[in-house]
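dumping this here before i forget
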Amino acid sequence: VSTQSTGTNKDTNQTLTNTTPSFLFLMLTFIALYCVGILSVYCQNPFDGKELYVNPSYQAELDTSIATASGTVKQTLQSMRNVASAYWIDVMSKINGTGTDSVQGILMDASSKSPIPLVTFIVYDLPNRDCHAKASNGEICCYPNSDGTCNYNQGGDCSEGITKYKSQYIDPLVAVFKKYPQVPIVAVIEPDSLPNLATNQADPHCGNTATSNAYTIGIPYAVNQISTCSNVAMYVDAAHGGWLGWTNNLQSYVQTIEKLNIVSKIRGFSTNVANYQPLGIACPSVGYCLNGQHQSDPCCSDPCRLSSQYNPANNELNYVLELTQQFTSIGFNPHFIVDTGRNGVPNMRADCANWCNIRGAGIGLVPTTNTTSPMIDAYHWLKTPGESDGCTQTLPDGNTCARFDSFCGSADSIGSRSGEPRAPVAGNWFDYQIKQLAANAHMGLEKN
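structure:
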């Protein structure tokens, strides 16, 4: 997943109730009015009171690293075996099956437990997926090249790709969801897609008509179809503060969401998916740290130096505050889930635009509903800790990686220094990285 900063206008678990009383009162009043209406089904935190599903397939991955670990790293990895993380449905072949490496197998397994746990899935297979990067390009193309990769430069209506996405990915996925109505599900919808559409139109891979059609037709279809499943709550991806935190970027994103006419079907938004932005401390108001103000306040801690670029989202809690302000202004009161899987170390990057296999990162807070913010439903491990962000130019087996993205060769990326192991392709297990994440872990004590 590419989650780099694209600003064009240039760890502490802390309550968001530091917000100015008048603004918080208005927010909570809006929640009350919204939740007594026709959409009250979307007003309950889906994580409340739920056990979270721990995937045996993830435990097996961890076990391969536990076997060669020692000391506190081994102890941390062992404790992670009992922590839930999301399952990425990044290829069509992961939908049906009997094992816990498939949606059907996971739901079958979850339905057999007592109490039945909540399962979190990442819906991630749009045509021309991840248009601004190479590491996570998908299997469904608007116009495929002869080798099966996507021709991102070709414009058009993407009709064949969209049809394939609907009939071979979303429709079968919804059918499986409906087979297990007793299993509560959270679905995160298509990370990076709408942020790319909102901010990366200058990239012809994202700005051409084919990609635009794929995203603006595919995502509403996915949301509308999944909304027919009474057991599923949805969060659409909203990138992170180092990407959309600039006012013009965020306004473009809000306008993109408005045009899709989907807000009545979703619970809210996910942030920091597969990224490393610090959780931080919420400030009293949006823009509190700008223009050099309040720099001694801990909520203005700014390891990515965003405030100096006139970006008020110096951490993810302040980004949530900004998102809330923007969306309530158009009549939608969203809730959020924040990926804390790998943001346990706030200041390990030389350049926060770097997003691939970051050196020195650490596991963050375990999944919990104890966010002490009325707007954040949960912190969760949405990117599976230990699974690679993307490959180095040379793979661990010595072959050349066809999906190499230059960001995976950044100065902050594991594998860019002499003596470091090469990184595998996105989604594959990266033993060196998970041990480093465990060594630097700041997981907290709360677990849902």
